[in-house]
């Protein structure tokens, strides 16, 4: 008996529930993508939920805290402050357990209303604060690295995950080694897996690169892990 797919109207022979194999697989992928989007939205809502009411836009003149980026010049032995980025105490406390501990105790930052964050530019600091308010930020590869470092330092898990997903999507043959080392340094599991997979797939060419040799000198443990993962994949492939 001739059967027709209800989705694409193509003829098929299997006795499926009115759908050919291609359309069924496409629908399944779409369903999984929707599930991921829903989970992402739930996480975003949870991140943005606050106990006290706060203006959802960037902080204005009513903000009760000032954040400064600090860069240190070793040659001149002095520190330079970036322009201040205002923020509400309630937002920082609700987003970060580090800020919470800092601003609910007798620490100097709580008394002065000033928080100094070292080795961060004004642009990165402003993007960091913006994310704490909106859970949105425009990323490029450098900004994602800088914000992931800040997110780890202040335990803003939602931002760290956001940056890690972006960096994972950008892993390629050119940046796999650097991404792998960075991911290990900052405990970014998803990025570790993506970078390691890329390295293994191109190991014959990547091991000849200067950055691989530098990694061997700087952290031979990571190189051992790469070869162990490569050999494990070879064994599994042979068994199959």
List its traits:
240 residues; 59% helix; globular; four-stranded mixed sheet; 12 helices; two-stranded antiparallel sheet
Topology, element by element:
Blueprint lengths: L2 E2 L6 E2 L8 H28 L16 E9 L4 E4 L3 E3 L1 H7 L1 H7 L4 H5 L1 E5 L3 H13 L6 H13 L3 H13 L6 H10 L3 H13 L1 H4 L3 H9 L1 H20 L1
Parallel strand pairs: 3-6
Antiparallel strand pairs: 1-2, 3-4, 3-5
Protein name: BTB domain-containing protein
Pathway: Protein modification; protein ubiquitination
Keywords: Coiled coil
Please explain how this structure is put together:
By secondary structure, this protein is an alpha+beta fold. The protein has a domain at 3-48. It has helices spanning 21-48, 89-95, 97-103, 108-112, 122-134, 141-153, 157-169, 176-185, 189-201, 203-206, 210-218, 220-239; strands spanning 3-4, 11-12, 65-73, 78-81, 85-87, 114-118. The strands form two sheets. Strands 3, 4, 5 and 6 form a four-stranded mixed β-sheet that branches. Strands 1-2 form a two-stranded antiparallel ribbon.
């Amino acid at each position: 008996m001739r059967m027709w797919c209800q989705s694409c109207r193509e003829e098929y022979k299997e006795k499926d529930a009115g759908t050919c194999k291609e359309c069924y697989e496409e629908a399944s992928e779409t369903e999984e993508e929707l599930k991921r989007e829903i989970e992402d939205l739930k996480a975003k809502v949870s991140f943005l939920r606050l106990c006290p009411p706060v203006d959802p836009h960037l902080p204005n003149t009513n903000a009760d805290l000032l954040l400064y980026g600090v860069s240190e010049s070793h040659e001149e032995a002095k520190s330079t402050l970036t322009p201040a980025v205002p923020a509400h105490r309630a937002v920082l406390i609700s987003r970060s357990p580090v800020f919470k501990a800092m601003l609910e105790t007798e620490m100097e930052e709580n008394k002065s209303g000033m928080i100094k964050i070292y080795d961060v530019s004004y642009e990165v600091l402003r993007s960091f604060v913006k994310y704490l308010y909106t859970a949105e930020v425009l990323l490029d590869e450098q900004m994602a690295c800088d914000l992931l470092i800040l997110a780890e330092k202040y335990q803003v898990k939602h931002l760290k995950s956001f940056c890690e997903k972006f960096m994972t999507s950008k892993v390629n043959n050119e940046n796999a080694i650097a991404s792998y080392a960075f991911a290990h340094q900052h405990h970014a599991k998803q990025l570790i897996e993506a970078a390691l997979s890329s390295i293994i797939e191109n190991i014959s060419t990547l091991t000849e690169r200067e950055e691989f040799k530098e990694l061997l000198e700087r952290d031979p443990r990571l190189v051992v892990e790469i070869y162990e993962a490569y050999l494990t994949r070879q064994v599994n492939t042979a068994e199959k």
